[in-house]
User: Fold DUF3810 domain-containing protein from Solitalea canadensis.
Amino acid sequence: MNKQLRKKLYLLLVLIFVIFLFRFFANWPSFIENVYANGIYKLISILQRSITGWLPFSLGDVVYAVVILLILLGIFQYIRGIVKAKENRGSFALNGLLKGTIIFLCAYLVFQFCWGLNYFRQPLSERLMLNSERADKEQLMRLAAILTQRVNTAHLELTNDSLVQYRNPIHSDSLYKIASVGYDKSVDFNFKIRSTKTSLYKLLMNYGGIGGYYNPFSGESQVNTDPPKFSLPFTICHEMAHQSGISAEEEANFVGYITALNTQDKFFKYSAELEAFMYTVSELGRMDTLARKHYYLSLNRGVKADIKEYRQFWRKYENAIEPYFEWYYDLFLKSNNQPKGIRSYNEFVNLLVGYYEKKGLITVKSQ
Ligand SMILES: [Zn+2]
Assistant:
């Protein structure tokens, strides 16, 4: 074995050991909560956004594009090298494979250190003392009834006419500022230095079915501003929840909901209530399709028009690659303490039931 190969093998072993060390600490949610989420992560994210936040564009988006190009170039050079090598083809191939694995593991460790360990925090339901048990049909029906009324009221506050679809004229940059107010007013989720930007890859995100994403390497939140506007305030608040150190998707949805309401802005309120309604009736529909239809039909006509436009928008971009992307994302979430994968987003409804249960609006499940 040559010296270079041996050096790479040693480095690989060290990296695997550090990953095991990270996973070992991840078994102690209270340690992750106190030492990482409320200590190390806060410092890292302040540093990240102090560097990237002032830029008018998403630096993370640019860096991702450069990295993808470099990866493609590396793969091309690797294959070309194997084909061209007359002697030592095996050692060249192994060397390249080791190099690729080391780069991947380094990126994984940076990801875990910069944000990923937040997946292993104490559950938000424990921190807020909310019941987060899986909601039964009766509870979901009660929640759907509450949200139907809240959506219709929020819609009427905007339009004064149940038949009219609301058109919001505010630019997305102003929406980012309003969302920030929601976090300023929050006791539990306030955080320092925010950075929310419109993504450079909106079209690509449309085809991937993505409304927004958090870049753990730059600390920036990217928002796709193409989907119907009523969905933006909720998406923005969701992505900001990720900045605050909430990794789990159902928790980011819940924090997005609460902080959107915190803004006391009528459009944000409508957005949050409608998204919560859509998640709730979608879960309810898995148990009872007639109940789902009943609540949908109880909405103001203007609200139904918004839902129709939303579905049509995403349907327009459905494609053959999307399921593969979803499969990969599902796997990613499952490997990061989100056992339900993509369905984690829907677990949001259990937190909503717990929230309205605490407010005395939903009855506690009988044991
Ligand atoms: Zn998210």
About this structure: The longest strand covers residues 196-198. The mean pLDDT is 94. DSSP finds 15 helices and three strands in the chain. The two ends are 64 Å apart (CA to CA).
